[in-house]
Amino acid sequence: MPARRPSRIHRTASHRTVAAAAVLSLLLGALAACGYGSEARKDDKAGKAVLVAGAQKLSADSVRIGYFPNLTHATPLVGVQEGLFQKELGGTQVRTATFNAGPSEIEALNAGSIDIGWIGPSPAVNGFTKSGGKNLRIIGGSASGGVKLVVNPDRIKSPDDLKGKTIATPQLGNTQDVAFLNWISERGWKVDAQSGKGDVDVARTDNKVIPNAYASGAIDGAWVPEPTASKLVSEGAKVLLDESDLWPDGKFVITHIIVSQEFLADHPDVVEAVLRGSVRTNEWIKADPERAKASANAALKALSGKELPPDVIDPAWKSLRTTDDPLAATLRAQADHAVQARLLKEPDLSGVYDLAPLNKALRSLGRLEVSDAGLGVP
């Protein structure tokens, strides 16, 4: 049954309590079905990753890449769908797995289930610091933008109206959660980061559950990535803030590329080929955005069984930018925000980046090199 558009601003307290309990039940069910290590899905037959007869094999028989079935991971969605990674890899087979959360992808990388992954900044920083800097490197950029604060316009008409309201983020300590807590702090409001209780209540809610939580009235809005933001807008929510407006030049990392340090050391030629595929894919996306959007939607349909409707994918696609640059300076800022929120101890990010393979690929394609903002390998 389609979710009803929420418009009853005078909902009783008991009604909201019941609604919140119902949504909590949905959330617990969703999370139980998606525990760490159980969220990976092998998708080896997805897209056009077909070996070309007679193509030369690189130093590995195959490379296992991981990503999310999400528009913020447009580069791997399109690159796999269109065979652009496989073209660069020649006789080395692309194998894929998809994930619903960053921690499970980091777990897969640590376990050797994947070699290279597309992931958000917070889980990458957490994974790097928890391993003492020994498990991964960030080797390239992928996407910027695509995060919005969307609200119920009957209850919230300006940022000041958020005080006393309940706003969802996808996960405690995830990239959007940290950004929202930092924005709250800059307004002078107080929130306990762990519990989410304070001048604004922060409800950590899985992206898949947020639309139902919004429809039921259990939340008043959400700070979320695309396409969840546009899904809420299609159901009557209003964009109150685009996170891009808070960053210099409107750019901040939302997705970048990580690699197992062991795989990088053993198979640098394969890593370079994947990065060339990423750069080629981003060029392909920018050259024909409409065709790329259709390709990404086809990939989502293959992975999830359904595509996004036009009123969701069209605005979501416009708010995202693919990028080869990992926007390293913004990663440092995001880590500082997590420290200020007391969700992360002061991290040593020295060596979190190794952009030598990417810069080699960029030079080979006549492109400018990118910076690691002083956080590269010695």
What does this structure look like?
This protein has 14 helices and twelve strands. The chain is of the alpha/beta class and 378 residues long. The protein has a seven-stranded mixed sheet, sandwiched between helices. A five-stranded mixed sheet has the order 8-7-9-6-10, with helices on both faces. α6 links the parallel β7 and β8 (201-204). α10 (268-287) packs across α14 (356-364). The protein is globular, with a radius of gyration of 20 Å. Mean pLDDT is 88; it is low at 1-40.
Task: Please write out the topology.
Layout: H1 13-32, E1 41-42, E2 62-67, H2 74-81, H3 84-89, E3 93-98, H4 102-111, E4 116-119, H5 121-130, E5 136-145, E6 147-151, E7 166-169, H6 175-186, E8 201-204, H7 210-216, E9 221-225, H8 228-234, E10 238-242, E11 253-260, H9 261-266, H10 268-287, H11 289-304, H12 310-318, E12 320-322, H13 328-340, H14 356-364
Parallel strand pairs: 2-3, 2-4, 7-8, 7-9
Antiparallel strand pairs: 1-3, 4-11, 5-11, 5-12, 6-9, 6-10
Helix pairs in contact: 2-10, 2-11, 6-13, 8-12, 10-11, 10-14
Strand order of the largest sheet: 1-3-2-4-11-5-12
Q: Report the sheet with the most strands, covering strand number, pairing sense and barrel closure.
A: 7 strands, mixed
Oligomer: single chain
What is the helix fraction of residues, given as a range?
Answer: 40-55%
What is the 3D shape? globular
> Kindly, what is the distance between the CA atoms of the first and last residues, rounded to a whole number of angstroms?
56 Å
Structural class: alpha/beta
Could you list the spans in which at least 5 consecutive residues all have pLDDT below 50? Answer: 1-40
Tell me the fraction of residues in β-strands, as a range.
15-25%
Radius of gyration using CA atoms only: 20 Å
N to C succession of SSEs: HEEHHEHEHEEEHEHEHEEHHHHEHH
Number of strand segments:
12
**Rounded average pLDDT:** 88
Q: Please work out how many helical segments DSSP would assign.
A: 14
